[in-house]
Each structure stands twice: as structure tokens, then as C-alpha cells.
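Render this sequence as a predicted structure.
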Amino acid sequence: MLDRSAETAFAAVLGAHALRAHISDNPQYCGRFIEPEPETPIGTFHLVDEGVCVVDLPQGGGAIELQAGDLVMFPHGAAHTLRSPPDCEADDSVAAQRRTAILCGEFEFASGRRNPVLDALPAWIVVRHDDSQPQFRHLARLMAHEAQHASFGRQLVLDKLADALFVMALRQHIAASPERRGLIAALVDPRLARVLEALHLEPGRAWTVAALAALAHQSRTAFAQHFHAVLGASPYQYLTEWRMTEARRLLGDPRHSAATIAEQLGYQTEAAFRRAFKKIHGHGPGQTRRAARHARINAVPSDPANAR
């Protein structure tokens, strides 16, 4: 499991990239079914509530059978197919008695596809009910119960629970996967976890490789090589990416000026900050500011009196 340093860094990354999950459908089948799911620009997932479902995986991954309580997640939105199990196809009497219910959802990050969480995840993740933690099983049952009852606020509750489902599935993957990469591999490495905690808590500090190497209890050369091997970037590149992620989040708040953000993130001049921001995001801070303002305006509900 993750130690305190890793937990701090993990929470900071998820918070900055702003996860948004949504339950999009709750199909229920009697007998045979086949549902091709096309590739999407956002992540998708399916939680089996009742019955059995076969999933044809992408990239020649074969097929897996999911039982009630099992989850399959496609972090990069890969195309796949949901279908009834072979016994339904072969036996009409079995098909007539077989009922399957699935909670289908999607998730994305406000920062888009470019973030270290997605970069660290494989094409698909499977969480088995029998192998999962008790908290995951309780959450899956709660979501199934909520989906079955048309209570007030049902969709809102399901979407909030879907946020937690993603994090729990990610936690299960971190704990169980033998193949970790990128951010996930760094989080389970105590030396790098300490470094990531420091970078995420104090992105505006004038960090040096020597200071970070001291946190990792390594020499400068060994640390720099180890950091790049695991995260695919130098410590300075990672810090710059993180600073610009924080900058985009802060630009969404009109109380923060570009000059204030630049100073907070360790830049000597606003011009240097603007150059770094454009290099990472492909556009200047002003465009991000305008997009955030537009999103806030559209989020304000119209006046019911004017709507009549």
C-alpha cells in the first residue's frame, strides 16, 4: 500500500487534474445480447450488477467473463464489446432465464488526456469482486442499490459514487498489478514518493537536483537516472509540468492574477511564466482564463422567471 508521502502526492495529482465520473446507462438484458462499444475520447467502465457478462477486450486481449460485482475499466476509451456468455448462445432455455444488469459509466479529467494518472494506466483494468477490498464491494453494492431505486437525486448520488469507484479501482490496481509504470511505479517507490510529495506540496520552491536527491537518499547522478527511468522525464521537466498543471487550476479562479500565479509557482517574471505555460499547453494563460470564465457563465442556471 501507499505510504503517507505517496498518498499526499496522489491526492495532489488527482485534485489538480479534477476527475469527473458519470453513470451514463444502466442496461438490463434478458437472454442473449451483444453491445459493441466504440472507441471514445474519454475513459469508460462497466460494473456488473447482476448476472454474467463477457467482454471482448481490445488489442487482441481476448475475452473475459465478468460476474456480479466485477468491474472492467478502459482508461483510454478503447473500443470493446459486451455480450452474453456462451451458455446463453448455445442453450435457449438458459438464455430465457438469464438476466444481466450492468452499470455503465465514463470518466474524464478536466485537464484532458494529458496527465500522469492516465499515462500510468494500461488499456484496461479488471477488478474482481472476490479479490477486491471490502470497501470496494460495499461501494459496488451501494451503487447497484441506488441504480435500482428512482430516489430523489439518484443521478447525482451515482456520479459521486462513481468518482469513488474510480479511485478504489485505481487503488486496487496499484496494490495488485505486477506491472507498474510512470506515476504509479513512482508512488510505490519510497524514495521517489518522498520527492513527489515535496514537489507537489511546494511547486514554487527553487528546487535543485541536489536537494531532491537528498530527499531520496541517493547521489545526484543515481537519483537523476532513477527518476528519469521511472517517470520518463527529468526532475526539472516533471516539476515544470506540475507547475503548469497547478497554473491551469489557479487560472480558473478570477481572484488569482497571472503575475500572482507566476510568483507563487517560482517564476521570477510573468513573461517567463507565460512562456513556460505556452510551451506546455500550446496556448497562453489568457486563453485558459477565458475558457474558465465561459464555463462559469454557462454553469449559472437561467432565471426561472425569464424562462417562462
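Summary. The first strand starts at residue 19 and ends at 25. The chain has 15 helices and ten strands.
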